[in-house]
């Protein structure tokens, strides 16, 4: 089992769990276009880095025109061992994801100085006039 049932709640819902299966029944009938919500809370028991697949199925006692929209699944990846727990200090410094900007700025500054020096030498050799 990858999840352990903790609780389920929602206004007008009666929910019971049997192992990995949680069944929730609405106290009132929903009309076409109506919606209702409930929350199921679980604890993750899967190994780090695992994929958990949740499946939700809705049904009704009355006939439906289409039943192909009554099921949905969602896959959720659990955090791997390197993930941070909330409230813990970072295990390592912030990840370095780019070039060292100080070095790039230094090279750019040196190139600007070299360009200015070349312009000064050129002006001295031509006496300040342009050809």
Helix/strand/pairing category: alpha+beta
Total helical segments: 1
Mean pLDDT: 82
Strand order across the largest sheet: 1-4
| 3D shape | elongated
SSE pattern: EEEEEEH
State the total count of DSSP E strands.
Answer: 6
Percentage of helical residues? 10-25%
Kindly give the count of domains: 2
Low-confidence stretches: none
Key traits:
two-stranded antiparallel ribbon, 131 residues, alpha+beta, elongated
Characterization of this structure:
The protein is an alpha+beta fold. It has two domains: 3-77, no CATH class; 99-131. 19% of the residues lie in helices and 30% in strands. It has one helix and six strands; from the N terminus they run ββββββα. The strands form three sheets. It has a two-stranded antiparallel sheet. A two-stranded antiparallel sheet has the order 2-3. A hairpin with a 2-residue loop joins strand 2 (13-18) and strand 3. The protein is elongated. The N and C termini lie far apart (84 Å).
Brief summary:
With 131 residues, the chain is an alpha+beta fold.
Map the helices and strands.
Layout: E1 3-9, E2 13-18, E3 21-26, E4 39-44, E5 51-57, E6 71-77, H1 101-125
Antiparallel strand pairs: 1-4, 2-3, 5-6
């Amino acid at each position: 089992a990858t999840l352990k049932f903790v609780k389920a709640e929602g206004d007008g819902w009666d929910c019971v769990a049997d192992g990995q299966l949680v069944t929730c029944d609405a106290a009132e009938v929903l009309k076409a276009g109506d919606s209702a919500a409930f929350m199921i809370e679980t604890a993750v028991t899967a190994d780090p880095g695992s994929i958990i697949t949740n499946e939700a199925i809705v049904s009704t006692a009355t006939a439906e025109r289409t039943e192909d929209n009554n099921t949905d699944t969602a896959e959720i990846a659990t955090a791997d061992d390197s993930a941070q727990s909330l409230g813990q200090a970072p295990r390592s410094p912030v990840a370095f994801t780019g070039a060292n900007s100080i070095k790039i700025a230094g090279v750019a500054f040196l190139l600007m100085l070299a360009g200015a020096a070349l312009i000064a030498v050129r002006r001295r050799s031509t006496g300040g006039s342009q050809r």
